[in-house]
Amino acid sequence: MITGLSTVLLVIAQGLSIGIRGWTTDWLTALFGPLDERQFGMGYGGLMFTVSGLMIFCHGLASRPRKGADLFVTGAIGLVTAVVTVFVFYPIFIMLMSAFRTEDGGGSLVLFFQRLFESKLWQIDCLIGAGSCGVAINSFLLAVSVGVITTVLGLCFALVIVRTGFRFNKVLRALSVVPIITPPFVIGLAIILLFGLSGTVTTTIAEWLGINPTRWVYGFIGVMIAQTLAFTPIAFLVLIGVVESVSPSLEEASQTLRADRWTSFKTVTLPLIRPGLANAFLLGFIESMADFGNPLVLGGNLDVLSTEIFFAIVGAQYDQSGAAILATILLGFTLLAFYFQRFWLGKKSYVTVTGKGDSGIPTQLPKRVAIPAIFVVTLWTIFTFVVYGMILYGSVVELWGVNNTITFKHYITAFGLDWKDGIVWSGAAWDSFWTTMMISVTAAPFTAALGLLTAYLLTRQKFYGQNAFEFGTMLSFAIPGTVIGVSYILAFNVPPIEITGTGLILVISFIFRNMPVGVRAGIASMTQIDKSLDESSATLGASTWATLRHVIMPLLKSATVAALVYSFVRAMTAISAVIFLVSAEYDMATSYIIGRVENNDYGLAIAYSTTLIIVMLAAILLLQFLVGRTKIGRRHSKLESI
Amino acid sequence: MSQVIKANAADVRFENVSKIYGKDAVAVGNIDLVVEAGTLVTLLGPSGCGKTTTLRMIAGLELPTSGKIFVGGDDVTDLPATQRDIAMVFQSYALFPHMSVQENIAYGLENSGMARDEIVERTASGMHLVGLNGFEKRLPSELSGGQQQRVAVARAIVLEPQVLLFDEPLSNLDAKLRRQVREEIRELQTSLGLTVVYVTHDQEEALAVSDKIVVMEKAKIAQIGSPLDLYERPNSIFVADFIGEANILACEVVGSSESGSSVRVEGYEFEVGNVIPSGKEVRLAVRPRNISLSADANSNALVGTVRKVSYVGSHYEYTVAGTFGEIFAIEDATHPTKTEGSEVSITFKQKGSCLVPI
After folding, report:
1. DSSP string of A217-245?
2. Are A298 and A427 found together in one domain?
3. Are B86 and A256 in contact (CB < 8 Å)?
4. Is residue A313 one of the residues assigned to a domain?
5. In whole angstroms, what is the distance from residue A160 CA to residue B126 CA?
C-alpha cells in the first residue's frame, strides 16, 4: 500500500516539478542545479507505471483487515477518483491559477480583481436603455431567459404528453429527439435562413408591408430563439420523467379532499415537480451559458462570455489570462446556479413516501392548463417543422435568397467521391468527417463504461467520502464546455501531460464532458434493480466483479445503449469545448462547419449539418438494433388493484 | 378539548353496478349492495376480485359503466370525487410529501372554503383524536409508518364525511401494529358513528373489525353477512375456505329437519346445523379447530393415519390422511397427543361444521 502510494506521489511530484524551462520552482533549482533537458510529456510507460502504482495502493487498502473491502471496488474507486481529478479538477485548477497570472509571468491578486470587475464585463447600460451591457451581464440575461423559457416549454410538452389524450402525442415524443441529434448552431443557421436579411420570412414581410428588411434577428432575440429551440428538448426529457413519477394516488387523494383539478394541480402536482423544474432550468441555463455556436452565428453585436473566451484565445491578442478570467466568471455563474438550485429545493423531502403502491389513474390536466399548453406545443411543433424544413431545403439551394435553384453541388463539394485506382475521397468534408466519426466512436464506449462504473459505485457501494465523490462527479456536469476547452488547453499544453493538438485530447474531453450523462442513466436504472439481486448473487459465492458482470450488466443493457448513443451523439455535435481543442490534423465536423459559416458559405455548412443529422439518426437506429432491448419478465402490478 | 368532529353518517347503495375496462375486462359485474349508515362494512376477497374498484367507485375515482350509486339517498353516480361528501384513506396513505402534518390535515378543510378559525380548531381536534399532538410541523417523511397512517386517517375524518373509505389501510404496517391500528379504527368508527367501507384481503382483519362483510370473488359478490354468519354458514366452498380455512369433504345427506341435517361421510354419521334444499349437490365444510382426534377406537368415526405434526406455539397442527382424503386439524394442547404414523379416529364437532352447495 505504501509502495503504491509513494509511487503515485513521486510520479506526480516529478511531473509537476519540471516545467518546459527546467525546474518550476527556485528551491529545486538550488537543490539539484539547472537541468540540461526539458521535461517531455509522459508517455504510455509513465501511464502504466502510474496506474500500477495506483492499483498497488488500492490493493493495499483492500487487504487491510477491515470489513467489506473488496479489491475490485477499491480499485474502481481509486481509478475513477484519479481520472476525474486529473481530467476535471486539475485543468480547472490550472485555469483558475492562470487567471491570476500577469503578462510577465508573476501572479497578482489586485490585477485579477481589477480585470474581474472591469466595466466592459459588468456594465448594465442596456437595461436602462443606454448603450450596451457587459459581456457577463449579456450572458447572464440570456441564460436566465433561455432557462425560463425552455423550462416552461418543456413543462408544457411533458404535461401534454403525459396528462392529456392529445392526438399527436407520438409525433411530439419523436420530435423531441430530433434537436438532440442536431448540432446546436444548425438551428441558428435555420433562423438566419428564415429571419436573416435575405431570409424567407423577412423578404416576404418586406414585400407585403413595404418595409426595409432589418438585421433585428442578429443579437439577443435571435440567439434566444435559437437556443430555446435547441434546448427545450433537454428540459422536456428532464420533466417528463418527473411528471410521470408523480404518484397518481396523491392527486386522487387531493380530489377526495375536495380539491378540484385546478387546485390539485396547483397545490399538489406543481410543488411535487419543483425539483424537476429546478433541474430543467439549471440545464437550460448551463447550456445557454456554454453555447458557442448560436451566438457566433447569430450574435451580431451581442458579445457573450463563450464567444469572448474564444476570441481571447484564438484572436490576435492571444490573451490566456483574459480567457481564463472570462472562463472563471462563466464557471462562477454556473456553479452559482448549481448552488441556488440546491438552496431552493432545500431540505424538504420530495420523495413520494410510499410502501406498497396503489395504482391510481393519472389525473387529466385541468382545462385552463391543458388548452394553453396544447396551443403552445402545437405552435412550437409547427415552428420546429418549418425550421427543419428550412435546413433540408437550404442544403439543396444554390445560394439562399439570391439564387433559389435546386442543386446538389453543396453535397458534391463536401462529400464528392472519385474513382482513380480505388476510391478517392475528394470531398472537402471527408477529412473532418472521418476524424469526427473516429473520435466519437472511440470516446463512446469509454464514456459509457466510466459513467456506468461511477453509477454502480454510487448506488451499490458504501465507502468513505462517498458524498464528496458524488458531488465531484456531478459537479463536472455544471462545468460549461467552453470552460473545459479553455482549461484543457491551459493544462495539457505543457508537461507532464502534453496532449494538446492530438486526437487524444478530444477523446478525453468528450469522455469527461459526457460522463455525467452516463452516470445519471446508470443511477436511474440501477435504482430500479433491487439490491437483493446483488445480495443473492453474493450469497451464491460470486465476487463483486462477477456480480457486476453477470447480474447487473445484463440488466443494464438499455442504460448502456442510452449512454453509448448519447455520448456518440454529443461528441458528434459538440462545439463549445471542441473549438479550442481542434488542430489542423484533427479537425472536427462542427468546427469545420463553423469555419464555413464564418466564410458565409451557408450552403456547404447546411449540407454538411444535414448529413451529420442523418448519420447520427442511422447510428442510433443501428446501435438500438445491435444491442437489442433488455427483456426482463416483470409482473405488472398494475392489473392487481385496478 | 371539546369534541369538534362529528359524523354525518349516511348509507351507500349500489344498484346493478358494473365496471368494465376496455371492451370486456369486467372488474365489477352487476352488483347490488347496501351499506347502512353508521356501520363498518368490509369488502373482502382475493387480489383482482373487484373490491378496490368497488371502493373507488364509491369515492368517485372511477365512474361505473352502468348502474347507479346512492349516498344518503342522493344519486351520486356521475359526480366526480371532488363533489362527493366522501373521504378516503389510501393504501399508500398518499400523504402530500411537501406539506407538514398540519397542512396535510387542513388541506381538505381549506378546499371546502371553511373559515380560518374553524380550520385551525378542527385540525387540532383531528390530530388530538388520532394522538398526533406535537407532530404538527413534521413532514410525512419524518414519521413512522404508523404515524403516517394516523395522519391519513385524521385528514379524512376532519372532513366529517358521509362515508369514510379505507383501502387496505394496514397492508404497509408490520404485524404487531396491525392489530393495534385496526382496533383504533374500529373504536373511532363506533365512537363517532361513522359509515365506513373497508377493503382488505385479510380475512382475520375483516372478521375482527366488521359489522358486515361482503365477500367478493371474480367481480361478483359471493356472500354478504355478519362475521358469525360467514364463519358458521358459508354459502359456497369459496367462502368457507376463504374465511377461516375449511376441510372440504365429499358427503351424503341422509336426512334433514328444520334445525339441521344428518350427514354421512363414509361410515361416519353426524348432525350439522344447516339445511341445503334437496336436489343440490353439497360438500361438507369442517373447520380445523372443530375436529377431535382420538387414539381410542370408535365405531362412529372416520379412521385415518397422522402424517404430520407441527408445533406452532399456541397449538398443534395435524395432517391426517385416510380414504376420505386429507384433513387438517388443530388441537390446543401443551403436549402433542398423537405421534406421526399413529392411527386415530376422527370425529367432528357440530358447531363449525356445515354443508355448502357446490
Report:
1. TSSHHHHHHHHHHHHHHHHHHHHHHHHHH
2. no
3. yes
4. yes
5. 38
Q: Do residue A172 and residue A304 come from a single domain?
A: yes
Residue where a domain stops, chosen among A359, A394, A429: A394
Q: Are the beta carbons of A353 and B148 separated by less than 8 Å? A: yes
Q: Which domain holds residue A241?
A: 119-344+369-394
CA atoms within 13 A on the CB side of B135: 24
Residue of A nearest to B144 (CA): A353
Side chain identity, residue A42? M
Cell numbers for B137, please give them: 410541523
Subunit contact A353:B93, Cβ cutoff 8 A: yes
Domains and CATH numbers, chain B: 12-232 (3.40.50.300), 247-357 (2.40.50.140)
What is the interface pTM, i.e. ipTM, of the complex?
0.80
What Rg value do the Cα atoms of chain B yield, rounded? Answer: 24
Q: What CATH number did the domain enclosing A205 receive? A: 1.10.3720.10
> How much is the pTM?
0.77
Show which residues on chain A lie within 8 Å of chain B, measured between beta carbons: 247, 249-250, 252-261, 263, 267-268, 271-272, 274, 348-358, 360-361, 639-642
**CB distance A220 to A262 below 8 Å:** no
3-state secondary structure A453-515: HHHHHHHHCCCCCHHHHHHHHHHHHHCCHHHHHHHHHHHCCCCCCCCCCCHHHHHHHHHHHHH
- Whether residues A419 and A541 share a domain: the answer is yes
Q: Determine whether the interchain pair A350/B98 forms a contact, defined as Cβ–Cβ distance below 8 Å.
A: yes
Q: Please name the residues in contact with A498: beta carbons below 8 A apart, sequence gap of 6 or more.
A: A40, A41, A42, A492
Q: Is A472 a member of any domain?
A: yes
Q: Do B87 and A256 touch (CB under 8 A)?
A: yes
Residues A297-319 have pLDDT tens digits of 887 777 788 888 878 777 666 67
Could you report the per-residue pLDDT of A125-144, keeping only the tens digit for each? 666 655 666 778 888 888 89
The answer to whether position A36 is within a domain reads no
